[in-house]
Specification:
Order of helices and strands: EHEHEHEHEH
Shape: globular
Strand content: 15-25%
Largest sheet: 5 strands, parallel
Helix content: 40-55%
Number of strands: 5
Strand order of the largest sheet: 2-1-3-4-5
Distance between the termini: 22 Å
Length: 117
């Protein structure tokens, strides 16, 4: 279970630049970013932790199709802010149809990430 009073962000991406950039900016804002989890760990974290934000790589079909529905149906995380990232315009459009709160097109700059968070 997460530490009370600590804001958490879950980074569902394998893209190192996205993990690095979001982790740095989350740290600056006092948000603990969690990443590099295997599929089983992600499911467990979604059941055990309340996330203020979840960043989902919409260029990765497996991540979005497996974890977005679970996130949106979760009692604990159904109100998490969903940030979709993608390089592909079609995937950004798909993110909006899937009710992502924010979409960011790769490559992203620090200002966009900071503004979003």
């Amino acid at each position: 279970m997460g530490t009370p009073g600590i804001l958490l962000a879950l980074l569902l991406t394998d893209e190192e630049a996205t993990i690095r950039d979001f982790s740095v900016i989350c740290g600056e804002l006092g948000i603990e970013a969690q990443s590099h989890l295997d599929q089983r760990e992600i499911d467990q974290h979604l059941n055990d932790n309340k996330y203020a934000a979840v960043v989902i790589d919409f260029d990765n079909a497996e991540l979005r199709e497996r974890h977005l529905p679970a996130l949106q149906e979760s009692q604990l995380n159904k109100h998490s802010v969903i940030v979709a990232v993608a390089a592909n315009a079609k995937n950004l459009e798909r993110a909006l149809h899937c009710r992502a709160h924010f979409v960011l097109k790769r490559p992203m700059d620090e200002i966009e990430i900071r503004r979003t968070l």
